[in-house]
Amino acid sequence: MARKLPGATAVGLLASLAIACSTAPTAGPPATATPAAATLPATTPQPTAALAPTATAAPSPTLAPTPAPRASVAPTPTTDPEVAAALSGTSFPTYFWTKTNWKKRTVDLREIASGGPPPDGIPAIDNPQFDTVAQADQWLEAREPLVVMELGDEVHGYPLQVLMWHEIVNDTLGGLPVLVTFCPLCNSAIAFERRVGDRTLDFGTSGNLRQSDLIMYDRQTQSWWQQITGESIVGDLAGTQLRFLPAAIGSWQDFKEAFPQGRVLNRETGHARPYGQNPYYGYDRIDSSPLAFFFKGAPDGRLLPKERVVAVTVGDSSVAFPFTRLAQERVVHYSLEGLDFVVLYEPTARSALDSDIIREGRTVGSTGVFKTTLDGRKLTFAAASSGAAVFKDKETDSTWNILGQATAGQLKGKRLEAVVHGNHFWFSWAAFKPNTTVYGGARR
Known about the structure:
By secondary structure, this protein is mainly beta.
């Protein structure tokens, strides 16, 4: 199952894909327990993050609408007056969440909306299977995007054509239990450690969204987690923060050249899905607004809503580098809260959210963010003058790729230390980090 995007101006899901999803096995509850999206209350509260006003964006592409199903929310599974009051006016079903501790929460529950599918209706991948580079090369196109993760001596690639239909992968990499996530509505690909304290958590999709962003849940406590922040917002673990891990969206060509021994998440998931197709066709047009049903308030007007940004947070400070600016400069050196880093950009990876066929999507580019100090020496980078998708450091004239590897010169074989970052749509990032500095200033 993929999300149904409601409203006449929303991007509709392909009917044939919906049929394929409904007949495929899932990890969710039986069909008789499938909740439908409920109507939002007439008056919606202000979101936690204050959002700046924006000018009216251009309308979304004219596509056949897919109306969301409507149903009454099931009765609250509690008689506690405090919990009943907190759940009053919410727009998501509650009967599945028998273990969720509603008394512990860090957000107003009315900010949460049903995304359409029931819990695990978009099934997480719990037993990921991997191809070699040679095997994956038979079905991945050179510029197709994938999430790249490297821990210890292991490297995994997670193609967005697979993540699009699952959103969560519970994996182990370099001996560490990891969580790899992708929210199509926010273009947010983020990785975390799954260990919290002395226990390892397994995650699934809740079927709910907040400010368009995926809300995950852990199966051990049924606590809910905000994907873009990595924080638990409801349940016994409310207020707990997952540890971010470095991950980047790169192209298949870059991955296979940099990591010939890497492993690639394959399409043998146990679920019948049209991998390679994009059910959010045309969703990422830069000037289109987020879907009103899933987003409350006005998007921050400093950038166009779906401008892709490289977002970096250090301590309490955040900065966003617009892709449109990076495409012009290619290399940006920056210092944030004492951390010196470089942002690299190359025009390689395609958008997974543009064309209905991902391998035909327009090119939006790849980025890498790395510390500039290597072995005690600070390096200064520039794009190669040849126009090739490589970079040079001025100190040794060594050649570097977008994944932070020195491929030629005095430092060949060395690797830069990755900095945690995300490639998000601006509207979603700014909703959760409203005090973010925009590199280069506002650009409308």
